[in-house]
């Protein structure tokens, strides 16, 4: 009697499932390896070799494909700054500072061409660039994030400068005071860094009471409070202070019941800047 070699339908199904599983695993492995290779190697077919140098310009737009990203090189800080200076927002901010914030400081006698200026919370360096363009060449900026060549990394609560090293401490960022972890310490360090007879100019939102900011500065007197335009559309409030040549008696603990913070209503939702003499 002959032995039947025909497989049962169940055995055929199991064999087919195993075969399909193995093929699927092999395809997944091949696809993964191919993807890793593409990510680690730029395709030589992206652009002709003769065109590659032209695609490495520093002012190239944001890459929209893997070929664009592969053809880009690291942009030098000077070239990156040139691109930012060409943007409408940068030009608008610099023009607003030059026309709205700087002239009153010159009128108060705390800003001149030879002045040494420290910009706190400088961001990308709008204020530093505006000071230099206006003739104040010795202007430097500090922020928690370095942005060369205009801004160096430093903690505004502990600026790495000697006492009385600057003629003016300036900030066009309202969050420099309202967003600081320790506003009273920031104010104390700003007063330390400014020479006697120098000034401090800070921008802050108009929702914040002027007295709440002014009382942070124990060794300075208020010179002026005014509304300024810092980016061509939004208004802020600027507080200008001076550190007197004669030693000033420190104010008491008024306004410090909130731990040196800035709070309280006031203003109408636009913004102001304070100038103080240190």
UniProtKB/TrEMBL annotation:
Gene3D superfamilies: Vaccinia Virus protein VP39. Residues 241-278 are annotated as: Disordered. The chain crosses the membrane at residues 20-39. This is Methyltransferase type 11 domain-containing protein. CDD domains: AdoMet_MTases (cd02440). Residues 241-253 have a biased composition (Basic and acidic residues). InterPro entries: SAM-dependent_MTases_sf. It comes from the Eukaryota. It comes from Zea mays (Maize). Residues 257-270 have a biased composition (Gly residues). Keywords: Membrane, Transmembrane, Transmembrane helix. The lineage of its organism: Eukaryota, Viridiplantae, Streptophyta, Embryophyta, Tracheophyta.
